[in-house]
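User: For a benchmark we're assembling, each entry needs the component sequences followed by a predicted structure for the full assembly. Here are entry 17's components. Please fill in the structure.
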Amino acid sequence: MSSAKDEAGTGKPPMRDALVTAAFRLFLERGYEQTTVDDIVALAGVGRRSFFRYFPSKEDVVFPDHERCLADMTDFLAGGSDDDEPVGRVCDAARLVLRMYAENPTFSVQRYRLTKRVPGLRAYELSVVWRYERALAEYLRRRFAARREGTLQADVIAAAVVAAHNNALRSWLRSDGQGEASTAVDHALAYVRSAFGGAPVPPAAEQPADVVVVVARRGAPLWRVVQEIEATLGRD
Amino acid sequence: MSSAKDEAGTGKPPMRDALVTAAFRLFLERGYEQTTVDDIVALAGVGRRSFFRYFPSKEDVVFPDHERCLADMTDFLAGGSDDDEPVGRVCDAARLVLRMYAENPTFSVQRYRLTKRVPGLRAYELSVVWRYERALAEYLRRRFAARREGTLQADVIAAAVVAAHNNALRSWLRSDGQGEASTAVDHALAYVRSAFGGAPVPPAAEQPADVVVVVARRGAPLWRVVQEIEATLGRD
DNA sequence: CCTTGGTGTGCACTGAGTGCCACGAATGGT
DNA sequence: ACCATTCGTGGCACTCAGTGCACACCAAGG
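Assistant: Structure for entry 17:
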């Protein structure tokens, strides 16, 4: 029904947006589980089959823009240079997600209230967040390839960045999107950076590191280890 | 069918175990998605309705013991005293999960291979891990209630502990359960503790390690670092 | 004997998701 | 103008997970 014409300027399919708005209208007024896909397509005036053409599952309609945001994040991480400080780069990547949420505050708050109440949506959100975390961790693994504990550090730092980001994001969502979201996230990410500070990346350690890692073979002479530590730590 | 008697000593229902073994036999030989619940109950020789009496969903049969482990973890965290160092307590709680995996190495490895290949099971595992992480975070939030950034630190540290634990656990699972799982997890958790200000590395490892990693915050007193190294390295 | 109560089972139903095919509207080549 | 292809869409039937309900069985106990 209605127009088969695309809106000028955007190449976006209007049907997809119609499904999202119809779905959220029903989700908000009668609940997620009480709304069937048939209800959504009836309200949107489209066939049931078309719903699953745009969204592989009913849960996907709740997170319509995350696929795009994930692609942006991977592009952002792939586009950096090797001179970037890895942890800072990952924090900037996390800010992309925040920006997406901040673009539609009311929508984000509605979705937050929905996912908080529906266990199935919380579980689905976890898989979405997990993909972001994996993207960050894979980037850090590449950057930390030279380190001895590179994969461990990459996984832990990625998890910490995501947790800090989500902590700030959720507090912003809980306040109905009042205030500037970026300041809270900056603050949370600063905490992570203070814990994992710019680590000593071997080739070019430009900025001073907060943490120094020393690896010693068991049986190595103690004076040699102390000498090594004093050289890097004692200067502070 | 079969015995209606409980096995002496254990109050476990035998039907539940029969369903788990039947399910895994089919999952391994023809895949998870290619196996229906009807197939499982047919092999186990029970009614279809009984499956859902023991497992709320098909995915739950893959993680039959996590509910119990989560209860153990919350009990463990609730049973501590206020004198405990919070981060260390949380690390010990994480070790409970590792212990559960290590109790049945072959089963754990089979399940790992399964969850790695099936996206639906990976998503379900995320929700399981999330509940562990929430238990750790809630504990830390209580312990950090006095701090100004208590909830942030609690969330970030819990996420880091879980990530470190999972990193070590997965590397152990990838090696078919060879070697001692606890050493890798101890190592990974030591990294997290070093990053978040707890004591550098409190307990000396029982097994002799080939390398000793010491992580020190810049600005920490040198004598303290040397003392820590001497305690672990010098004893050899 | 007839109650309870717990446990296992059969049946019918809802709803998500899929495969297949048919229809109509562009598009494109001759 | 004609046919052929493609694409977006809708309709139909089907599988399968999960649920509600009722019934059968078996214990203990009046």
